[in-house]
Amino acid sequence: MTRKFFVGGNFKLNPASLAASTSLIEGLNKAELDPETEVVIAPPSIYLIPVKESVRKDVKVAAQNCYFKESGAFTGEISPKQLVDAGIPYVVLGHSERRTLFHETSALVATKTRAAIDAGLKVILCIGETLQEREADKTAEVCQSQLKEVVDVLKEADWSNIVIAYEPVWAIGTGKVATTAQAQQAHADVRSYIAKAVSPAVANDIQILYGGSVTAANSKELARQQDVDGFLVGGASLKPEFADIINARK
Ligand code: PEP
């Protein structure tokens, strides 16, 4: 398997002050991290630049969202071009909290993904089913329909700048992690959809992360699954155990 292990930390709307953000980054800077893991952290937008300037150089920085326009009358938004100009290489798009709390549709997520890729960003694209959808045996269908919107707008674009994060909504922030079998099955289904809808080569190369209540304790077994290429970590990315998750394949 040649895909590089990738761990993202989604800080969400945390921590609550610049001082706390600085001390979180100081902790990460001192940690021993597996050099074989690609590490990307996503602080709130107000801390993007200070974090980028203070974090160790082997850890990259991501915005948690962006808009699809370059500039203009879009109060409260940040453009992909502004992120690139500020030296921020990644953006997280389609997180379930954006979809649920801020009513972002898969079509909007796809438009943002295209704009971000065109501007030169790398995208961590989040997909995943609700509990109701899982119980109705619709996990693969839901993931495919979320991905299809992106496939339709990306067409010939360079998929090497996309990382997919499979994050079952019922597992995010709930303490209920997917079983290794559930995660592996969902990842394999996503990969086989990408093989059909884009190409077998893209499917083979694309990193598919698992997200949803990942901890140091459950990360090692999940990391051993064939199609689990890393994690997108929320709550635990604010704790020292984030380093253990980064080192899950060590
Ligand atoms: C997330 O926010 O992407 C996430 C997976 O959160 P948590 O790890 O807290 O479940």
UniProtKB/TrEMBL annotation:
PROSITE patterns: TIM_1, TIM_2. GO terms for cellular component: cytosol. Its EC number is 5.3.1.1. InterPro entries: Aldolase_TIM, TIM_sf, TrioseP_Isoase_bac/euk, Triosephosphate_isomerase, Triosephosphate_isomerase_AS. It comes from the Eukaryota. GO terms for biological process: gluconeogenesis; glyceraldehyde-3-phosphate biosynthetic process; glycerol catabolic process; glycolytic process. Pathway: Carbohydrate degradation; glycolysis; D-glyceraldehyde 3-phosphate from glycerone phosphate: step 1/1; Carbohydrate biosynthesis; gluconeogenesis. Keywords: Gluconeogenesis, Glycolysis, Isomerase. The keyword Isomerase applies. GO terms for molecular function: triose-phosphate isomerase activity. It catalyses: D-glyceraldehyde 3-phosphate = dihydroxyacetone phosphate. Homodimer. Belongs to the triosephosphate isomerase family. PANTHER family: TRIOSEPHOSPHATE ISOMERASE (PTHR21139:SF41). This is Triosephosphate isomerase.
